[in-house]
Design a protein that fits this description.
The chain is α/β, with parallel strands linked by helices and 206 residues long. It has a single domain, classed as 4-Layer Sandwich (Purple Acid Phosphatase, chain A, domain 2). It is 22% helix and 26% strand. The longest helix has 11 residues. The radius of gyration is 17 Å and the shape is globular. The N terminus is likely disordered.
Amino acid sequence: MKTDLIRSHKLRILAVSDFVDKSLAQMVEDKTLEPCDLIISCGDLAPEYLSFLRDRLDKPLFYVKGNHDIRYTSNNPVGCENIHAKIVRFQSLNILGLEGSLWYNGGMNQYRDKQMRKIISGLRFSFWTKGHIHMVITHAPPRHIHDAQDPCHMGFNSFVNLIDKRNPNYFIHGHIHKDFKNHGDRITLVNTTKIINTCGFTILEV
């Protein structure tokens, strides 16, 4: 009897946000970074930097905007896809994007929690047609998970509700600047969801 072996393929994802890590930029420039399948940006990075990553690594790049991303246009960053308030499919993954921070001074890409809750509620048909959400990428974190107490850096309660209801495998955010000694320090597990702060950059195998 013939036995068929099914091998699971891990996707290698480069996640970036908030500031340009010089070591990453050097690896990309020198072509010493291990190949990745996808690039995601969780915000607060110059559009030119995203275009640089997309061009040099020659892989799809999905992004959401942060509260400081005021120079983005429909054509810049070049070759990259804004997935705010969308569920996109990449190979076997359904990925949801939600931009911005909690409202604190009325600037661009800021939302009150009820506004963000309305955006998520407006995706009900997409949730139904797309099925399970494997990954959520945001700029801000969920409330009381990786966030801070000042108005600018508080997370969204609506993100907590999203995690509780949809149980994504991964919830990846930026916005909270922190010096991490290792990858494990970036992760908090909530039920079955890995919440990851990608400030700077990190590599995920999913």
